[in-house]
Every structure is written in structure tokens, then in C-alpha cells.
Design a protein that fits this description.
CATH architecture of the largest domain in chain B: 2-Layer Sandwich
Oligomer: heterodimer
CATH superfamily of the largest domain in chain B: Pseudouridine synthase I, catalytic domain, N-terminal subdomain
Number of domains of chain B: 2
Low-confidence stretches of chain B: none
Largest sheet of chain A: 6 strands, mixed
Largest interface: A-B, 23 and 29 residues
Number of helices of chain A: 23
Bound molecules: iron/sulfur cluster
Number of helices of chain B: 4
Helix content of chain B: 10-25%
CATH topology of the largest domain in chain B: Alpha-Beta Plaits
Low-confidence stretches of chain A: 630-641
Strand content of chain B: 35-45%
Mean pLDDT of chain B: 94
Order of helices and strands of chain B: EHEEHEEHEEEEEHE
CATH class of the domain at 4-221 in chain A: Alpha Beta
CATH superfamily of the domain at 4-221 in chain A: Cobalamin-binding domain
Chain lengths: ~650, ~210
């Protein structure tokens, strides 16, 4: 294997031939370089997109800090090289290496991939290959690192089951230590056996080792069941959570080149109780846990000081629901008074209070104000359980324009279950009203940016049973939006290409057989699927054909109510019964209120009863659990009753 | 006050370009909580100016910048505060206070000195001959990005150094004025050396008195 010095010498020969060579050299402030020989376990965290995007990922940063805080381990980073760099690396025989010590990834004990979205799958395969590590788990032996992956897309790990040794389901902060400890224990032994280590990993709560499970299929191609084939592996892999959010990272890595987001992100709370039925994040990150205002403000201050960044983002899925959002905004504007800092408080509810909040943050009006109504007809809003009356939207946007913002961004989704052209027309009508009202209060300078993405029914959500909208229907809806909205020069429209939506749907809803499709597509050149330069639709279609699979089976088929999903043996602790009830309510146009007001027993409390009992009170937004008996009260009738 | 900072740029920082370096210094000063002055206007710019852009991939032992602060600070204090705010591959070698009315730093650069190490073995005596020929020549017409120019007057000094173990390397001083900047790679090309197989380090910038 090449030494760091050899890699650096080779790099010096090629770096001036690529765009932005600063992506590939590390040396950033706040990165951690430890003595390789002084630790027992070396971990490489990989964000399989380019440096410019990956560097800002907070998940990677949290794990990186967790490992580097240990005396006995070190963590380094790697990202996907862009196409130009990859070509030269392959030409010059440079394996993918870590930015800190410039060691080949193959030298590490553990490689952890962060997979927040499915379009990173082909890059993951490509990175393994570029690192000289067998792409398939089955081909790895004792000399290779253990390959793990986590992130939202692990909600359905099956399409990647052939390539990843173990998945961390749920939150990674604690489980990463369990994984490292287990690796240490096994690798310390002179006759270390990879197989034995994997068996031990499979017994860690929240860890899924796919090789110890087998899926059988029914004649119609759907899953009969996925069952463990060794007694040590659990039948159902439950996600891991932390009872209390750990202190947020403050020493963010400061890149030496321009990247997409030069900002500090502080997570103010995790989870969401709104229950929007299309939102996978909202379903899989429960329960809601909040940080205190003090903790957020102190962390933001330290982080801004240690990075010099000019932007602070206060992150959550629904900022308006943060209990002390007013106090937080007050405290932040006081603490950063007179300092050059842009503060982002995304995901605000559509109400005038939100405009007051942004006002208090005294932000430049130039950035635009973003709101996400998601749907525009009353029927649709009931179906997706995001009910915001038109009047609220009009009043709020009018207020925003009149207070000096000239641009509003409104995010909608098309392709919701049972959506018709009328529902899409409602988007047009609403946008027109927004801009007309805006002109009344602020004149002709007002602008509206409409984002219309396409819905993908995601695993572990109430919509997991529904089919994707067809390509023809999506194109028709997009044509309607373009025709009607773009007549107005003040309106900008962006949308998702149907091919991109399809790919996302295949990859997120796939089963174990999809793994071969991914492999073939990658072999035939698919990578950087989220990028214009990457995504090759024909390659994917051909890969499905080659394996005799019908892609419509995965995307355009309404699932039977008794269907066993490919992801059935993995759970984010929100139970299938609950999701199914919610799905039925959706069909009836019934709204479910925020579960802070009324716990619907989604499954979180019975699963994490002990954690909740040990951490009572304010921290969680679920009801307290008093006695172990509470578990029984929460049982729901099973699907089909 | 106006402070002049001399610093090194090595290792990974060789791949940080001029504009990014500017941003890097702005952030470093902010991290160090130094009171940088900003320009007036809708997009206030920090008053930091770098003497001469260093081509991507080159290391340097002597880059220079001027920065204006809203208050007077002892130069040792500035150096001390910046020390922990910079990435490891930038090191401050000197901080001095300069006259506010002195002309802009960029206009004062005359030339730049470079050391060029060769990463592939070369024939020393052949190279020495080429160096001498180049220095003796009257003119050296070259083309760069479709433009013809004479490289020779831009080369103020060029010599080959031979180490005790026989290895050779080059030392050169090239003009670095507005509209008259000699580039080390051009000199290397003229000598028949592939810039890819060299490591260039700027050793210092030479200013007008
Ligand atoms: S347990 Fe109840 S309160 Fe907690 S997330 Fe589920 S429904 Fe909401």
C-alpha cells in the first residue's frame, strides 16, 4: 500500500490539472490530526459527494468529534473526488486517501459512510472501488476495513445490503462507540475473524448486519419475509436514539477554499411532531428533543468564534415549534448585536409570528423569505396533513412583502396521492394571489420563486403504501405550472426532472434485488446521480432490464394493505399500525393535530419507555412514562383488525 | 492603524488561490477578534490587500499583506492573536506597523525571488549551459495565452545551485510589476524543464524603498 509520502508526491503531479485542487489536500483549521501509531482504532468518515458539499455536513462532524475525543481512536475524512480528479487518480494509481494523514482508506479499521440521500449510492460503490476495497461485502476478508453506513436513507437499507457490512439505524452518536469498542475487542485477538466480529456487531442495538438475514419472495415478486439466519441477529432492528442531545459541535472545520455553505449550524431540536404524512424526516427522527436556549446560544457563539464564518443556521425540522423560539431569537440577536452575522432560522410556520421572528433577527432583506405550504387545495392539504388555510398564506406573504422582503420562496410538492390537475391549478391560483397582494403593498418590485418538487412515497411514512405519480402525469402537471406561472415575469419556477424523481423512488423503495441494479448501473458509468453531469437515465433503465426487473413494480404500484415491505425488519420505532391508521385517515381527508397536543401512541414511547422514564420532563415532547405498565396501554390494534 | 504582515504559505495551503486566501485572512482576523476596517458601501469589503498573487501550487516563505484596523494595537499583540487562528500551513514571520499614507502595497512590488527544486533527476552540466545561454541572450520571445512577449527582460537573476551530493536546483528573481510579471513556469519551459516535475517556492518579494 502507498505511504502518505508517496501519495503526496503523486498528488503534487496532478493537482494543478484539476478544478479546485484545494478539495483534495486537507490542512483545514479545526481538523484533527492524531498520531496514527498511538491509537488502537482508525476510523474514516466518508461523505460520498464532493468536498464542497460534504464539508458542511453536521452528522459527519458529530461523529468525527465523538471518535477524536477518544484516546484510543482517531477519525479522518474523505469525500468523493470530482470526475476530473477521479480520472487522474485512476491513471496515476492513487487510491482514495484520507485528507488528514493522506493514508489510503484501505488502511483504516472502519469506514463510515453518511448516506442522507439515495442518490449517493453509486458514489459509495465508486469510492470503495477507488479505495481498492472490494465493492461487495461478501468479497472482503480480515485484511479489509469494516464498512458501515448510516443516515436517513438507512431507513431502507436493503438496496445497499450487498455493499455495506453493517448499517447504523437511527442516531449515530452512541452507537458509533459501541461499534468501535466491538471492533477493538475482536481485532486485538491474534486470530481475528471478520465473521465473528460481524456477529458481534449484529447484536448491538441499532445495528443491522444484512448478511445475517435472508429475504424470500412471493410469486408476485413482493417480499414474503426477511428473517435472520443466525440466532444472534434480532428479528426486528430498532433504531437507536440518544435520550438527551449531546453538546453540539462547535469547532467546525474551516475549509481553505470556497464551498457551498460557509456556515455554522446548531441543531436546536431534533424530531418533529407535526405529522406531515409525506415527510420521512418527521416520521423517523421522533421523539422531539430540544436543547436549551442557553446551550444553543453559547454553542453558536463559540462556533462563530472558532470559525469566523459569517453565517449561522439554527437547524430543526420545524423552528416555530421550538418551545422557546421567541427567547432564542431574542438571545441570539442580543448576543450577536453589531457582529457581522447572517442568521438563518429555516422551517418557520406560515404565520405572521414568523415574520416577527425574522424581523427581530435584523437580517438583510435580500436573501428572500422561504415558506413551504406544500399543497394549495384544501383537499390536498388534508390528505398530506399539512393544513394551512389560504388566508394565512396570503396574510403572511403580504406581511413579508410589506416589511421589505422583495423575494418570497414558496415550496410546493406535486404528485401527492390522488392529486389532480385541479389541485395543481390551485398552486397557480395561490401564487398569483400572493404576488397580486404583494404588489398592492410593495409595488412591482416583488418577486416570487416557486419550487415545485415531486413527491416520492418514502419508507416508514404513512404514504409508504401509495404509488408514485406517473411520468406522464408529472409532466402534464409541470407543463401546467410552467404555462401558467411563467407568464408573469416576476415569478420564477423550479422543478425536478421526472427521471431524477424516479431514480430517487427506485432507490428508496427498492428491495435486495435492487442491489444488483445499482451495481450494474455503477459498472456502466452511473455516479454523481444527483448531479446534472452524473445521472444517466438510460444506464439505469438498462440495468433494470439486465436483471429482469420491472422498475414500475417498485415505483408505480399501489402496495397491498397486507404487503410485507422490503424494510419491514427495520423500524424507526413509529409502528406500521400507526402509519397505516394515519394512511387511512388521509384517504378520508382527516387531519391529525400536532402530537404535542395529543399523543397518538405512534410507538416511540413503548420502544423507548426506559429512556423516557430515566429522562422525564421538558426535554422530550412526548408524555412522561411513569411505570413500566405504561407500555401495555400504548399497544395499538394490528393492521387489518 | 495599518499593519504589514509577512507570512508563509506551505503544504496544503499551496492549493488555496488568491481570492480564497483573501477570505481566509478575513476569517482569521475575525477569529482573532481583530478590529478590521471595512470599506463603505452596500457590500463592505475588509481592508486587506495582498501584495502579489502567488500562483496555485507554489509554496512561499515570504508573502506580504497590508491590513487596516480601527484601532492601534501593538504588533506583538496582533501576531499573538493571529497565531491560533490560522491553519497550520500559514505562519506569521513578521508584523510591522506602516505609515497610513504609504502607497498601496501592490504598487510597490518590484520583483519576486523563487527557489525551484527538481523532483526528477536532471543532467546538471546541460542545465547549467542552458541557464548561462538564457542569461546571455538578448531577448527570449515567448507566447503565453496567445500573446507574444519577451521573457528575457523579466528575468533579473537566474542561477543553478549544486548541492554537495550533486543534486541541482534553481534560484531566480523575476520582475513582478503591473504588466511586467515573469512567471517561473515560463522560465522552466524555456530551460526545457517540465514544471510538473518541480516544486516552486517563493522566497521573498522585493519592494520599492
Ligand atoms: S409517542 Fe406520542 S407524542 Fe411522542 S412522537 Fe409519538 S405520537 Fe408524538
Amino acid at each position: 500500500m502507498l505511504t502518505p509520502e508517496q501519495i503526496e508526491t503523486k498528488l503534487d503531479r496532478i493537482l494543478l490539472k484539476v478544478q479546485k485542487p484545494g478539495r483534495y489536500v486537507g490542512g483545514e483549521l479545526n481538523s484533527t490530526i492524531k498520531d496514527w501509531d498511538q491509537v488502537q482504532t482508525r476510523v474514516a468518515f466518508v461523505f460520498p459527494d464532493i468536498y464542497d458539499i460534504g464539508i458542511s455536513n453536521v452528522g459527519v462532524k458529530i461523529l468525527y468529534d465523538q471518535i477524536n475525543q477518544r484516546e484510543d481512536a482517531l477519525a479522518e475524512r474523505a469525500y468523493a473526488p470530482w470526475l476530473d480528479m477521479e480520472t487522474l487518480m485512476r491513471e496515476h494509481g492513487i487510491p482514495l486517501y484520507s485528507l488528514e494523514s493522506k493514508r489510503p482508506l484501505a488502511c483504516f479499521d472502519l469506514i463510515g459512510f453518511t448516506l442522507p440521500y439515495e442518490t449517493l449510492y453509486t458514489n459509495t460503490l465508486n469510492i470503495l472501488d477507488l479505495a481498492g476495497i472490494p465493492v461487495r461485502s461478501a468479497d472482503r476478508d480480515e485484511s479489509h476495513p469494516i464498512i458501515i453506513a448510516g443516515g436517513h436513507s438507512a431507513t431502507n437499507p436493503e438496496p445497499m445490503h450487498a455493499f455495506i457490512d453493517a448499517f447504523a439505524i437511527g442516531e449515530g452518536e452512541e452507537v458509533i462507540h459501541d461499534i468501535v469498542n466491538t471492533i477493538q475487542k475482536f481485532k486485538a485477538s491474534p486470530n481475528y475473524k471478520r465473521e465473528e466480529l460481524l456477529v458481534a456487531l449484529a447484536q448491538i442495538s441499532g445495528v443491522y448486519v444484512p448478511k445475517f438475514y435472508e429475504t424470500t419472495y412471493l410469486e408476485d415478486g413482493t417480499v414474503a419475509h426477511t428473517l435472520p439466519i443466525i440466532p444472534e441477529a434480532p428479528k426486528l432492528v430498532n433504531k437507536r436514539i440518544v435520550a438527551k442531545l449531546l453538546p453540539p459541535p462547535v469547532k467546525f472545520i474551516v475549509p481553505n477554499i470556497e464551498v457551498v455553505h460557509n456556515r455554522v449550524s446548531v441543531e436546536i431540536m431534533r424530531g418533529c411532531t407535526r405529522g406531515c404524512r409525506f415527510c420521512q424526516a418527521g416520521m423517523i427522527t421522533r421523539p422531539v428533543r430540544e436543547r436549551s436556549v442557553q446551550e444553543v446560544v453559547d454553542a453558536a457563539d463559540q462556533a462563530v468564534r472558532s470559525t469566523g464564518f459569517e453565517e449561522l443556521a439554527l437547524m430543526s425540522l420545524s423552528s416555530s415549534d421550538y418551545t422557546y423560539v421567541n427567547d432564542l431569537v431574542e438571545a441570539i440577536s442580543k448576543r450577536f448585536e453589531g457582529r457581522k452575522l447572517t442568521v438563518a432560522l429555516p422551517s418557520l410556520r406560515i404565520e405572521s409570528v414568523s415574520v416577527d421572528l425574522m424581523d427581530k433577527l435584523k437580517q438583510h432583506r435580500s436573501g428572500g423569505f422561504t415558506l413551504a405550504p406544500e399543497a394549495a387545495s384544501e383537499r390536498m392539504r388534508r390528505i398530506i396533513n399539512k393544513f394551512i388555510p389560504d388566508e394565512d398564506i396570503i396574510n403572511t406573504t403580504r406581511d413579508i412583502y410589506s416589511r421589505g422582503w422583495t423575494t418570497i420562496k414558496l415550496y410546493f410538492m406535486i404528485g401527492h396521492p390522488s392529486e389532480t390537475l385541479e389541485d395543481v391549478q390551485a398552486i397557480v391560483d395561490l401564487c398569483r394571489r400572493v404576488i397580486d397582494e404583494g404588489r398592492k403593498v410593495a409595488g412591482w418590485k416583488v418577486k416570487l420563486h416557486v419550487g415545485a418538487s415531486t413527491f416520492v412515497p418514502k419508507p416508514q411514512t404513512p404514504f409508504q403504501w401509495v404509488a408514485c405519480d406517473t411520468r406522464e402525469s408529472v409532466l402534464e402537471k409541470q407543463a401546467l405550472l410552467k404555462r401558467q406561472l411563467l407568464k408573469d415575469k416576476s415569478i420564477k419556477l423550479s422543478w425536478t426532472k421526472p427521471e431524477d424523481t424516479l431514480l430517487e423512488a427506485w432507490l428508496s423503495r427498492g428491495d435486495r434485488r435492487t442491489a444488483e441494479v445499482i451495481y450494474t448501473a455503477w459498472r456502466n458509468g452511473a455516479k454523481f446521480d444527483a448531479w446534472e453531469e452524473g445521472h444517466k437515465h438510460e444506464v439505469w433503465m438498462a440495468a433494470f432490464d439486465e436483471h429482469g426487473l420491472d422498475h414500475a413494480f417498485y415505483t408505480h404500484r399501489q402496495r397491498r394493505t397486507d404487503e410485507v415491505f422490503p424494510w419491514e425488519h427495520i423500524t424507526a420505532a413509529v409502528r406500521k399500525n400507526f402509519l397505516f391508521q394515519d394512511f387511512r385517515q388521509s384517504l378520508e381527508g382527516q387531519i391529525r393535530v400536532d402530537c404535542r397536543l395529543n399523543c397518538f401512541a405512534c410507538g416511540i414511547l413503548p420502544t423507548f419507555a426506559n429512556l423516557r422514564r430515566e429522562n422525564p420532563g421538558e426535554g422530550w415532547k412526548c408524555p412522561d412514562v411513569k411505570s413500566p405498565a405504561a407500555k401495555m396501554d400504548m399497544e395499538l390494534p394490528v393492521v387489518g383488525d | 492603524m495599518r499593519a504589514r504582515i509577512t507570512f508563509t504559505k506551505q503544504g496544503a495551503l499551496r492549493y488555496t488561490g488568491h481570492l480564497d486566501l483573501h477570505r481566509l485572512w478575513e476569517r482569521a482576523m475575525r477569529r482573532a477578534e481583530l478590529p478590521i476596517s471595512y470599506s463603505q458601501g452596500f457590500h463592505p469589503q475588509p481592508k486587506i490587500s495582498l501584495a502579489a498573487a502567488l500562483p496555485l501550487g507554489f509554496a512561499s516563505r515570504g508573502e506580504v499583506l497590508d491590513v487596516r484596523f480601527n484601532e492601534d494595537l501593538p504588533t506583538e499583540e496582533i501576531a499573538r492573536r493571529l497565531k491560533d487562528s490560522l491553519p497550520p500551513d500559514i505562519q506569521i514571520t513578521e508584523v510591522e506597523s506602516v505609515d497610513e499614507r504609504a502607497p498601496a502595497l501592490q504598487t510597490q512590488v518590484l520583483s519576486a525571488a523563487y527557489d525551484v527544486h527538481l523532483t526528477e533527476p536532471v543532467d546538471g552540466s546541460a542545465l547549467k549551459r542552458k541557464v548561462e545561454e538564457l542569461m546571455m541572450s538578448e531577448s527570449l520571445p515567448r507566447e503565453r495565452r496567445g500573446k507574444f512577449y519577451d521573457l528575457r527582460p523579466l528575468v533579473e537573476m537566474l542561477s543553478m545551485v549544486t548541492e554537495a551530493d550533486g543534486r541541482v536546483w534553481l534560484r531566480m528573481t523575476l520582475a513582478s510589476r503591473e504588466g511586467a510579471t515573469g512567471r517561473p513556469e515560463e522560465v522552466l519551459n524555456a530551460l526545457g524543464i517540465e514544471p510538473e516535475y518541480t516544486r516552486v517556492e517563493r522566497t521573498r518579494l522585493i519592494f520599492q524603498e
